[in-house]
Prior knowledge:
The protein is mainly alpha-helical. It is 54% helix and 4% strand. A two-stranded antiparallel sheet has the order 1-2. Helix 5 (77-89) packs across helix 9 and helix 10 (204-211) crosses helix 11. The longest helix is centred in the N-terminal third of the chain and has 23 residues, at 18-40. 23% of the residues are buried.
Amino acid sequence: MARLSIFMGILFKSTSICRERSAVITEASLWLWMAESSMNGHLNTCWENEMAIPRAVDPIKSLEDIRSIKQMLLSKPRDYLLFVMGINSGIRLGDLLKFKVRQFQGRKVGASIEITESKTGKQNFLVINREVDRALKMYFDSTGVEPDSYLFRSRKAGKPLTLCAVNRMVKAWACSINLKGNYGGRTLRKTFGYIQRVHFGVGFEVLCKRYNHSNPSVTMRYIGVQPEEITNIMMHEI
Length: 238
């Protein structure tokens, strides 16, 4: 009930201008949803712990920053593999965490792993490139893994890492190298698209196919055009 009272206070605290009213209603709607979810026992644990209004996560834009995180994770082969596979595949985190060890054992560079996306039910695939192959070998050589084990095992026996756990991990990695911005689990998938587009020149149409989006405009909104890109094109001399 306390959260419902907060909701009412937020809703009517300001009506001076249209834009301000819109922001208030958005914040109020969030609190109402949290109150209802809490009463029904469905409040997401990550949200409940952080108690923050969610916003879109950022990609890691710099190849140097990517190398810094890789270097930092070399002593943690599981985390290193998760980071490398995430930024080299563009696969949703929820699907990555479902992989089993047997799906990768004996596979060589260029091999593809077929999956059915949990969110969409669409078919997708992951290709093992040289960087992923290197990370896999390092992980398999460093620890005893059973074929039926999850590739990204948690400390809980037989369980994979959770989305919440990976979200915290990615935030910690970014913080460790002093990255400014908002980072989380989806950063890995977004980084794949950003690096492919900005550093390798891959177009939104191709990335749309890779992401299994319905059309390139969805991909454009998902990855985003960064403010510095607009500034850079203004330096082109015509």
